[in-house]
TrEMBL record:
UniProt keywords, alphabetically: Aminotransferase, Transferase
The organism of origin for this protein: Georgenia deserti
Protein name in the entry: Aminotransferase class V-fold PLP-dependent enzyme
Pfam families: Aminotran_5
Keyword presence, NADP: no
Amino acid sequence: MREAFGATFDVPDGYLNTPSIGAPPTTVAAAVEDTLVRWRRGLDTPADFDGAVHAARVGFAQLVGVPADRVAIGASASQVVSMVAAGLPEGARVLTAEREFTSVTFPFAARPGVSVDEVPLSELPGVLTGYDLVAVSVAQSADGALVDLDALREAAERVDVPVLLDVTQAAGWIPLDLAWADWVACAGYKWLLAPRGVAWLAVHPRAHERTVPVAANWYAGEDPWDTTYGLPLRLASDARAFDLSPAWLAFTGAAVSVPYLAGLDLTEVREHCVGLADGLLERLGLPGRGSAIVTIGSDDAAQRLAAAGVVASVRDGKVRVGFHLYNTADDVERVVSALA
């Protein structure tokens, strides 16, 4: 067991795979286990999960700095991004970063008549003119590189280009204030330490009419229990109009993990995570990058780390590790020793 930031984590030494799957606090796993028992015994009704959905929605809103009535719930990053892609007109041009995670780009690339251009991440804020949308991750999945949010906001406002930000690899370790963005998408099973099957889309009021509820359903009604049968279409007036009917078990976990993270001092969390990541880079003779995600490009790094008990992943041809709440200097030492 590891104790960190007021929580207990049953995570093994050397677990550095948060960019793929976050390891939950024991309280989160216990909440899901309790729900499994109740499910097996037939003790819950659908309405019993509304409180969990609400708690997770409010927690996510706090993490990204938006009002809760702007937040829709979903199941995956690509699913919520698809509602933005569906609202683009024929001939729209979308700008993104090179090697961007495909859950961000594929929903747009799959739209007939919509073109998607890639540019280096560092150049993206400077080339927005002529585009109908920019879609980019705050922290890149492949290597943890961070977009310059201040520069992107200034450029987007200057040339009036809508912005979609994916915070799947950022929310939970970076303090975020993204009320200015048109859309903010996120999946919860990585840094937000929730089960897979939970996602969110924050929708700015000015972008509401340009967001299409491609999976419109009963749960997206103003009163979900009054929209279970019959026409006409009657969706909620706020971002709940874009809700997907929730995955109950997943949301019982998110209802614990997301408010927990929202209640932490995220500046302290970032200092902890980045301190470990940059400390590893320094030990490897490399400059710090200010990200919780580190990539290692040596030919046999994956094999050597696995042999040392380090749980990592390989992305875009490099070993990727990530440092979260439960990681310590001992994890850094384990990586350094394996690669020495």
